[in-house]
From TrEMBL:
Protein name: Type IV pilus assembly protein PilW
One GO BP: type IV pilus assembly
Alphabetical list of Pfam families matching this protein: PilW
InterPro entries, A to Z: PilW
Amino acid sequence: MIELMVSLTIGLIILAAIGAIFLASRQSFRTQDVLSRMQENARFAFELIDRDIRMTGFSGYASCTASQCNDVTNTATTWWNHKLLTQPLAGYEASLPSDMTASARIAGDSFSVIRADKFNEYIVASHNTAASPPVITLTNAHSISAGQLVIISNASNTSIFQASAVNQSSKTITHADGGSSPGNCTAELGTVPANCSSTGSVITYPANSSVFEFSANTYYIGSNPAGEPSLYRESYSGTAQELVEGVEDMQISYGVDTSATADQNIDGYVAANAVTDWSKVLGIRISLLMVSRSEELGVSGQQTYTFNGSSYTSSDTKLRKVFTTTIAIRNRL
């Protein structure tokens, strides 16, 4: 009997040890799995942001002057109109652009990037400014739709206009004046009505000029339909797109060239509300606070972490990790 009890005791000790090892291994696996997912989500988020920031202000093959690229549409002032490519980057400290109403936003900084989309470039076959309305014919099929903003550019000029109609089979884009819907105020591409402020001479873009889709995006942190914090991107059309789940906060600082000689070197990083000249911003430093999902409660104990220069202690059992990257604005270096 004594031998049996000793054997049972030893067996129970061994089972308890095996159980403890199993539970520890399971918890370690859960933690590593969540960390891997958070790291992958952060990498994907940075890739998407990187593509926009590096091309900030890209306008094609010539600089975009105020008369060619400002006041494009006869609509009310928005965060993208009346700035366009003359101020292609803007940041907002713990807020959004004043005229943007993104109901999903919950926290963090936001920023806007405006550029020509190099990944959607088309070649001009002809540009008939004598037609009413003017017509641009492309050499290749395109995905541009009516109402979309478009950039046309060559080595001498760049203009922005709003496509009033398109014909995919004939590969044409028509450009109505500001009296139409959608309207245009770009003088270089046709007659400008009295309600528009732009002035200038009509420019006929020759064959082999390029047409780009216009890109204007604002990035911010919002809450998705499941109640999880996510990185969102909203385009100038007002369409908000959830990019990456599990992004709880975003803090941004801007690398500014403050030297009197403008030597194109970053002299320091400041918050958005400390930037006095956005054309002096040469790079952006972005920190994302990634968090595990609500269904992954218990993956971590009470956690202390540092974010944006301050120390925090979590009140839940979610896992958090900070990822930071610095992205240069290629067109300004």
